[in-house]
Amino acid sequence: MMDNVSVITMFTLSGLNGTANYRVTLFVLTLLCYFVIWLVNLTIIVTIIVDKSLHEPMYIFLCNLCISGLYGTAGFYPKFLIDLLSPTHVISYAGCLLQGFVLHSAACADFSILALMAYDRYVAICQPLVYHSVMTTPRVCVFVFFTWLVPFYLLFMSTITTSNSRLCGSHIPKIYCVNWLISNLACSASLAKIIIPAFNYTFYFGHFMIVVWSYVYLIKKCLRSKENRSKFMQTCVPHLVSLIVVVVCLLFDLLYMRFGSKQLSQSVQNFMAIVFLLIPPILNPLIYGFKLTQIRNRIQNFICGKR
Fold first, then answer.
1. Phi first, then psi: what are they for 264, rounded to 5°?
2. What are the E-state strand segments in the chain?
3. Where is the G-protein coupled receptors family 1 profile domain (predicted)?
4. What is the CATH number of the domain that holds 50?
5. Does residue 3 fall inside a structural domain?
6. Which long-range contacts (CB under 8 A, 24 or more apart) does 208-217 make?
7. What is the pTM of this model?
8. Structure confidence by residue, pLDDT tens digits, 144-201
9. Residue 136 resides in a domain
10. CB-CB contact of 186 with 168 (8 Å)
11. The domain containing residue 265 runs over which residues?
């Protein structure tokens, strides 16, 4: 009998079979959303790179958050747009693993960057006298490097584990691939399948606790000073809103994927599947673009043709 791993070379994706009547409309709307995602994120990225006065830790981290948004959405939208115009919705085995890796690593990178931004705001407001000695350029570069390296490494290990599983099915009940759904097709459970995801979830829950701890101290500090309250409202509120948006959207998707009812209409299921690929990549740059005065002014000056 042949090994199932060598037999399964393609996966079928579900969710688009009932969209034939409005597939073109959906394609146009999706393409528009993807264009807006690129426009708002690229605007923030280019503004921060070009303007040397924005080469500060907070803006460097924001630039990386926008890059993560573009990286993650690139793992979904091009393939989804092709599927909308195709009568068959399939993805290769390697393509499915790659898509799962990109989507997972982007989500983890978001968490790492947001935790780093929380730490940056904690030092800036609670320990302003040592801020520049703590957040030096070399140290910021190291922070950013590990912010990307760690998610890539953890998800690479998770993807390798998934790829080594013998599969007894080829149907992914979603409009895109994620490692958890691929591993559910395994013929038998493995210890690594349980341990590695458990470690990853625990590791990023630790990131969340770092953010909570930072904001507890920030709020205590800001209640004592009018100047700190102003600084908190200016720089921390956008970060806090971004964090809430990312956490809510990711939890929404994770909890629905594991415990959600399959009795909902396919359209509702599809919307739930793309919430974290639609809302955070658009809202995050808009929130920072409108709220952070320096970025808003630079963008306005550029649009008006002022130097």
1. -70, 155
2. 10-13, 90-92, 171-172
3. 40-288
4. 1.20.1070.10
5. no
6. 208/111, 208/115, 208/247, 210/115, 210/118, 210/119, 211/114, 211/115, 211/118, 211/243, 214/118, 214/119, 214/121, 214/122, 215/118, 215/240, 217/122, 217/126
7. 0.87
8. 999 999 999 999 988 888 888 888 888 888 889 988 888 888 887 776 677 888 888 8
9. yes
10. yes
11. 10-304
